[in-house]
C-alpha cells in the first residue's frame, strides 16, 4: 500500500521586501527620536541634580567654572558666551524634536561666571530667562486702606482713576418762611373776599325818650 504524502501547512501571504524595508526605516526613526528626547530630558535633569548638590538657591558654593562645566551631562550644545563687564553668561541647550512641535521649549540651562584670575568662578545657574528674577519683597508692609471719618472710601471709576473726595457733611436745610407756602392749594390767582361788617340792630325807643323835645334835652 502506498503511503500518503504529509499535508502542507497553510501559510499566510508573504510580505514583500519593500514593505519590510519601509517598516525597518520607520522603526529606526522612532528609536532615534526616542533617544534624542531621552537625552534632552535626562541631560537637563542630571545636570540640575549635580548643580543642586554644590549650590544653595541656585548660587554655587565656591565652585570654579571648569568644575561646573564638568558636571553638565549628555553633551549639550553651547551658544556663544555673552561677556559682560563683571559677569559672563554661558548658554547650554539639548536638542529636541517633539517639544517644539508641542509648543514647548527645548531643555536649556544658563550658567554665569565671574572674571576671577587665574580661574573664573561659577556664580549661579537657571533653566530659562524667566527664572532669572529677583525676589521682590512681599506686600506685608503695605499701608492698610483706611476709611475717612465720613465713612466714604476712595473709589475709582471704570477707567481706574481714583479721586479723593472729602466726606459729606450733614447740613440742616432751613425751613421755608414764605407765606405762600402755607396757602391752601387752589387759592392762587383768586381775589380775596372783602371783609363783612357785623350786623347791628337798632335798639327800640321808649315813650319818654320820644316825648322829650330838643329844648328839654338841652336843659
Structure summary:
It is built from five helices and seven strands. The chain has helices at residues 17-53, 65-70, 98-101, 207-211, 214-218, and strands at residues 55-56, 59-64, 77-78, 82-83, 87-93, 108-114, 121-126.
How are the SSEs placed, and which strands pair?
Elements: H1 17-53, E1 55-56, E2 59-64, H2 65-70, E3 77-78, E4 82-83, E5 87-93, H3 98-101, E6 108-114, E7 121-126, H4 207-211, H5 214-218
Antiparallel strand pairs: 1-2, 2-7, 3-5, 4-5, 5-6, 6-7
β-strand amount: 5-15%
Biggest β-sheet description: 7 strands, antiparallel
- Give the structural class: alpha+beta
Mean pLDDT: 73
Terminal-residue CA separation: 206 Å
- Please compute the radius of gyration using only Cα atoms: 55 Å
Number of helices: 5
Q: Would you mind describing this structure in some detail?
A:
The relative contact order is 0.08. This protein starts with 16 loop residues before the first helix and ends with a helix. The chain has helices spanning 17-53, 65-70, 98-101, 207-211, 214-218; strands at residues 55-56, 59-64, 77-78, 82-83, 87-93, 108-114, 121-126. The longest helix has 37 residues, at 17-53. The model is unreliable at 133-148, 151-163, 175-191 and 209-219 (pLDDT under 50). It has a domain at 20-131. Strands 1, 2, 3, 4, 5, 6 and 7 form a seven-stranded antiparallel beta sheet that branches. It has five helices and seven strands; from the N terminus they run αββαβββαββαα. By secondary structure, the protein is an alpha+beta fold.
Amino acid at each position: 500500500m502506498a503511503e500518503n504524502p504529509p499535508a502542507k501547512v497553510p501559510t499566510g501571504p508573504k510580505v514583500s521586501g519593500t514593505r519590510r524595508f519601509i517598516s525597518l526605516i520607520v522603526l529606526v526613526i522612532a528609536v532615534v527620536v526616542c533617544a534624542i528626547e531621552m537625552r534632552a530630558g535626562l541631560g537637563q535633569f542630571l545636570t540640575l541634580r549635580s548643580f543642586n548638590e554644590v549650590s544653595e538657591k541656585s548660587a554655587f558654593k565656591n565652585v570654579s567654572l571648569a568644575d561646573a562645566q564638568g558636571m553638565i551631562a549628555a553633551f549639550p550644545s553651547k551658544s556663544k558666551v555673552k561677556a559682560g563687564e563683571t559677569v559672563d553668561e554661558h548658554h547650554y541647550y539639548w536638542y529636541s524634536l517633539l517639544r517644539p512641535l508641542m509648543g514647548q521649549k527645548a531643555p536649556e540651562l544658563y550658567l554665569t561666571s565671574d572674571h576671577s584670575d587665574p580661574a573664573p568662578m561659577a556664580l549661579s545657574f537657571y533653566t530659562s530667562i524667566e527664572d532669572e528674577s529677583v525676589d521682590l519683597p512681599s506686600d506685608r508692609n503695605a499701608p492698610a486702606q483706611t476709611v475717612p471719618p465720613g465713612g466714604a472710601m476712595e473709589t475709582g471709576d471704570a477707567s481706574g482713576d481714583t479721586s479723593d473726595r472729602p466726606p459729606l457733611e450733614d447740613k440742616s436745610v432751613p425751613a421755608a418762611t414764605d407765606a405762600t407756602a402755607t396757602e391752601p392749594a387752589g387759592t392762587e390767582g383768586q381775589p380775596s373776599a372783602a371783609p363783612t361788617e357785623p350786623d347791628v340792630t337798632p335798639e327800640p325807643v321808649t315813650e319818654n325818650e320820644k316825648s322829650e323835645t330838643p329844648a328839654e334835652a338841652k336843659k
